[in-house]
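Let us work through a complete example step by step.
Step 1: write down the sequence.
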Amino acid sequence: MREIIKRVAARPIRILNNTVLGSYLYLAKVKVKEIKAIDVSRKRILILSPHQDDEILGCGCLIKKALEEKGSVKCIYMTDGSQSLSDELTPEALAELRKVEAIELAKNLGMEEPVFMDYPDGDLKVDDEGAEKIAGIIEDYKPDIIFLPYFLDGHKDHTAVSGIFIASVELLKKHKKFDTYCYEVNSPISVHGITHYMDCSGYLKAKKDALEFYSSQTMSFESIFEMNKLNRIIVGTSEGAELFRYIDLESYKNAYNRYNKNNEIYSRFRQMYSIYFMIPAYFKGLSVKKEVALFQNSGADPVRRKDESGKGTALNKRG
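Step 2: predict the structure and record it as tokens.
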């Protein structure tokens, strides 16, 4: 009965989502002071993904575009993915299957061999061993750009990634110059925090096809694609966009330490893994997102400083 009700309600829910969120974005886009397309041509890209599939959900169009433009992409999967929904597999079998799926995806798309940190799914924590391993990968791979999930997210594994990354950066001895961007997964970056985008026009099908490699996943993730399409309102693309926030490492570290004590900030947000939760997921915690964006903007964020002085500088800008 529940499934029947959901199927019947799906169409009016989609209309409601598009009406409410679309109207809000049209009115709120004036708050986006500056937003630029990310240049991924011939770039070495490293993506920190909490689970096997988050890299596609947050950066699928960007990955496809980067590989087409002679770039390279390498993913680090932080958790083993063992707690994903499954009616048939044990957590151990599911973890192994998701690893196989990620390897097959990388081969099919032409990405570099992925790295699996194998932290327990749902219990990702900052530790010295993880930070040292990621620091080593950064120094060996020498990325031009690093992508990680924004710490303003509704899943505690997603928010913890930033803590491990911040700790790893402090251990770097050689490769210290790279651009860093946060991507959105299930809790959208607000209009107050957006700085960059990737045009998904012509790439949404490729993103969906890539997600098909994760056949172990039982969720449709339709809401993520619907949000990508709505993002066209903000950036003016024809089909949709993935949104990002460029971060200065020092200001991001300060914001993370201030707002995510004990990795509890995830409880301030709602996950957007269903079309039935798109509206509450967008608006829950919006005031927190605005406050954090203002806190970051008051620091050494190069995009915002450029607005004020016309001379943006970046502590982590690749020279």
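Step 3: interpret the result. Residues 2-309 form a domain with the Rossmann fold fold (CATH 3.40.50.10320).
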